[in-house]
Write a structure and sequence with these properties.
By secondary structure, this protein is mainly α. The chain has one domain. The protein has helices at about 10-20, 25-30, 35-60, 65-80, 95-115, 120-130, 140-150, 155-160. The protein starts with 7 loop residues before the first helix and ends with a helix.
Length: about 160
């Protein structure tokens, strides 16, 4: 089956499969970031927000408008269905996360509209994590490396590049 013949459901499955879902304490340690379980969950939340932002940007760039809403809903439904199980988040509710994500999405969108690069958007996410005391200032470079590895911006565009 070629990419051109993917249904919105198939495209959603491909995108969700490409997205790193969680960041563990051990993975953070591999990047030189010290974190508690709670901090790792909060960092996971920020990483997920950044991934979803870029997935939705790829959808807007590569998918015909008439399919964008259906694809977006399928992705959010998949995330909601896995909340707390395949998407590990402790006590954060889906509704709370979704509200926070919408705020992040607006913030990141403004940066992109200003012509900022994906790395600059990741730097903004790192700043948010520093401000929320999820990481130390000295770990910022390590966090940016983690974001480059855990937010495959180019992959999302490539996955949808031939659709439509």
């Amino acid at each position: 089956m070629s990419a051109n013949s993917m249904t919105p459901r198939q495209a959603a499955a491909v995108l969700v499969a490409a997205m790193p879902i969680g960041v563990s304490v051990q993975q953070l340690e591999e990047y030189g970031i010290e974190a508690t379980t709670e901090q790792a969950q909060a960092i996971t939340q920020e990483v997920l927000s950044l991934n979803l932002f870029w997935i939705f940007a790829a959808i807007e760039a590569h998918i015909p408008r008439k399919y964008q809403s259906a694809l977006s809903e399928l992705i959010l439904d998949t995330m909601k269905a896995g909340w707390g199980t395949t998407v590990p988040f402790g006590s954060v509710s889906w509704t709370s996360y979704l509200n926070e994500w919408q705020e992040r999405r607006r913030r990141y969108s403004r940066l992109v509209e200003e012509g900022m690069s994906p790395l600059a958007v990741s730097a903004e996410a790192a700043t948010l994590m520093e401000e929320n005391r999820l990481v130390k200032e000295v770990e910022r470079g390590n966090l940016l490396t983690l974001l480059i590895d855990f937010v495959p911006v180019d992959t999302y565009g490539q996955l949808l590049g031939d659709v439509g």
